[in-house]
Structures are given as C-alpha cells and as structure tokens.
Design a protein that fits this description.
Number of strands: 20
Strand content: 25-35%
Low-confidence stretches: none
CATH class of the largest domain: Alpha Beta
Structural class: alpha/beta
Number of domains: 2
Number of helices: 15
Helix content: 25-40%
Mean pLDDT: 94
Radius of gyration: 21 Å
Length: 425
C-alpha cells in the first residue's frame, strides 16, 4: 500500500510513527508521502523517522485539488489520509476521488446560519457532503471512510461492538471524552488541533433522538458530571458539535433512542472560549491590520501552545469511550467501553502526546485493515458500517487496548450473584 498523508501535525506524525513500528519490514506499507503546507515540518517528521525512501516529505496546499491529484498520481498512492483541519475536508475528499484513490479522514465540517445558528437546521450537517457523494464513489469502485480517529473513530467501533455482542436492545449511546491531565507551566491548553477545538466547542451542540432526528442546542450545552474509570473519577463535561452523533444512528439500531457527545471542559476553558467568541477571535474571516489581512482565528492558533509540542509537560491519561444503556436477557444494563492512553507511556514509545497519539491509532488501524482486506467496500461510510471485531483485535495487537466498565444495573447484580454462588455447585 502507498499512502499520501496530508497534514504532518501531531496526529500525522504519531500515525507515521505507529505505522513504522507496526510494519518495520514493509509487509503491507510500502510508502507514505508526508505532505504539509509547512515544508520544514514535513522534512522534520521525515528526518525523525529515518527511512528516506519510505517516508517522503512533500509540500501541499490542502485546498488545491489539482496539486493533491498531482501528488497522488506522481507517487502512485492507493489511499489519501486527511489529517488536516475540517475546512480542507471537501477539497481533499474531491481530489482523492478524482485521482482514483481511497480516502480516510478524522472528521468533517458543517455550515450554519450565522444569524441564527441554533434556531435553524444547519445549512450543511457534518459529513452530509461526503454521504451525498457515496454513489459517485461506488461507481468508481472507491472507498471513503469518514471519522477514523479516536472520537469519531474507535468509539464508533466500540458502539457497534456493544450492539453486536452486549445488548439485545439499545436505549442510549453517550460518547464521553475526558482525562486527568496536569500540564506544567500552561494555564490554557488545546490537546488537539487548535482551530478544530475552537470550532467544535463554539458551534451549536448536536443531538439525535429517534422521535426528533438530529437537532441543535446552544454551544457547550447540558453540563454534567461523568465518572471516568480506573481512578480518574468525576469530571465536568458539556455537549459540543461532534460527528459521532451524525454517524452512529446511520448504522446502529436495536431500538436505539438517543445519541449524544460530551467532552471534558472545566469552567476556565469554557470562559476562555466564550471570551474568544465575544471578541470575534473565533472568526475565520480575514480583517485588515495595517497592510496585512489576517483571520483572527489563525492568530489564536498561531499564538496558542502547539499541541504537537507540549507532550513533555503533560502527566496523566486520556480516556475516551461510549456509555451504552439498554437491555440484556430481559434486564437493564449499562456499560462504559473505553480506551485509556497514558501520556508518559506514549511519549516514551513514540515521542508524541496522549491526545494526538490516541487519535492517530484510529487511521493507522484502519489502513492496516484495508491493506489486509479485513475491511473493504465501495462508497462513503463511517466506521460503524464495518465489522468491529478485526479492528478491536488489532487494537490489542498494537498494545492499544480497549476495556469495559460494567456499571451498576439489574443485569450486573444478577451476574454478580451468580458468580458468587459458582463455588456451591
């Protein structure tokens, strides 16, 4: 397999490192082209990997469809991986189709009515553009998988596994993203792409209910305290815009009633985001400053700590998963399926911090599944459309395990009582 990676930030670098470690003898990954708008960054990552003929740096303008097609054809790539900001989703997606390459991304974008973003349906829902073009991809025999990171990505696979193996009937799927990080010397930290975090937190929150379909709420809506496992404990979370809410109801049923996404944001971070909005610093519209035209959001992104370079300041773990409720064997059941990544551990293994590394495992796993034929097809899909078992098996093989926390429920109580009495028979 030959891969064109567009975006050599924290996630792109971590993905390349994971793949190099996973396939040291080029059994299935022949070449990965490391393309970025920052030539220095692309060369920096390629130099760190140290296999010049296998990991090649290139310049790319992620908004230039023609240039992306040229790169894809020049290097004879089979798959294009989009690891950039959501604003570049459409041009990269379109270029992959035109170049005859399969396509993966980590998420997508949306468009809202600026005058009344919550009161109206969006001008374009997340991933609507991709799904509307599924037939065109089928006709060319090409496959596009949207949402291949950790969330969306791994959590969608966990939700599919819960539907297939853990429940007879589903009620609610709650995607929850948190951590117990402490960051030395920094008061405000973006663990992921700065622009993406700001946009998804300040866009309207998205929910899905069977009787209502998809609907919007205010940014950072419905604050709650959610308890994360393995000693992290209760954390503050709020709803934000996220792709899982769009993806999960398309491929998971068994009576599913509601889907939501919430992320850990304490009051200091929420206040900072509200301040950015109040000052207009979340705008991507260019303004005139002296003789220069700049977008306020680009200034914020340029001055914020780079998520790819703060790993040595972080201690703690990132925990992302799905809290699923429903019934099993006639009894109510609740489980939290999750992936836990320790920052110190992945810094020692890959030199990349926990949030970007946890995200990077998703596309790395997906590429191997495609290369080995465990996942296949045509058209545009999200991860729930594929069998979850080979994905989860590969997580374990990569020492990136998933786990389950069985929450208190009538099902758990009966199971525990039966286990208690096993020694009596």
């Amino acid at each position: 397999m030959r891969v064109l990676l567009i975006g050599c930030g924290g996630v792109g670098e971590a993905m390349a490192r994971i793949l190099q470690r996973r396939d040291p003898h080029r059994e299935w990954l022949e070449r990965m082209v490391l393309a970025d708008h920052d030539r220095t960054r692309a060369h920096e990552v390629a130099t760190a990997l140290g296999e010049g003929e296998r990991f090649l740096p290139e310049f790319v303008d992620a908004g230039d469809r023609a240039l992306i097609q040229t790169l894809a054809r020049t290097h004879g790539v089979d798959v294009i991986v989009n690891a950039t900001e959501s604003a570049f989703t459409k041009p990269i997606f379109d270029a992959a189709h035109a170049a005859g390459a399969h396509y993966l991304d980590l998420g997508t974008d949306s468009r809202y009515d600026e005058d009344d973003p919550v009161g109206n349906a969006p001008e374009e829902w997340m991933a609507q553009y991709q799904f509307e073009h599924s037939r065109a991809w089928e006709e060319r025999g090409l496959l596009a998988i949207t949402g291949c990171g950790i969330d969306p990505g791994t959590v969608d696979v966990l939700a599919k596994y819960a539907e297939a193996h853990l429940f007879d009937r589903l009620d609610e799927i709650k995607v929850r993203d948190g951590n117990d990080f402490e960051v030395e010397g920094l008061d405000l930290v973006f663990g992921f792409n700065v622009v993406t975090v700001i946009e998804e937190c300040l866009n309207p929150s998205v929910f899905w209910e069977r009787d209502r379909g998809w609907y919007l709420a205010e940014p950072m809506a419905e604050p709650e305290v959610f308890t994360l496992p393995e000693g992290i404990g209760p954390v503050e979370m709020v709803a934000v815009e996220h792709e899982e809410v769009m993806y999960i109801p398309r491929s998971i049923d068994k009576g599913l009633r509601k889907v939501s996404f919430k992320i850990q944001l304490d009051e200091d971070m929420r206040a900072a985001l509200r301040t950015l909005r109040a000052l207009g610093l979340d705008s991507d519209e260019e303004i005139q400053i002296g003789e220069e035209e700049v977008a306020p959001l680009d200034v914020v992104a340029a001055t914020a700590p780079d998520p790819a370079r703060i790993g040595d300041r972080i201690t703690g773990r990132a925990c992302v998963g799905v809290n699923v409720t429903g019934t099993k064997d006639g009894l109510s059941r609740e489980v939290f399926l999750y992936q836990m990544t320790d920052n110190q551990e992945v810094m020692e293994r890959f030199g990349t911090q926990a949030v970007v590394t946890q995200t990077a495992y998703g596309p790395a796993i997906t590429l191997e599944l495609l290369a080995r034929g465990a996942w296949s097809g045509t058209g545009v899909h999200s991860p729930e459309a594929f069998p979850p078992e080979p994905y989860l098996a590969l997580m374990d093989a990569l020492d990136h395990p998933f786990a389950m926390d069985e929450r208190e429920s009538p099902y758990k109580h009966r199971r525990d009582q039966r286990a208690l009495r096993e020694g009596l028979t």
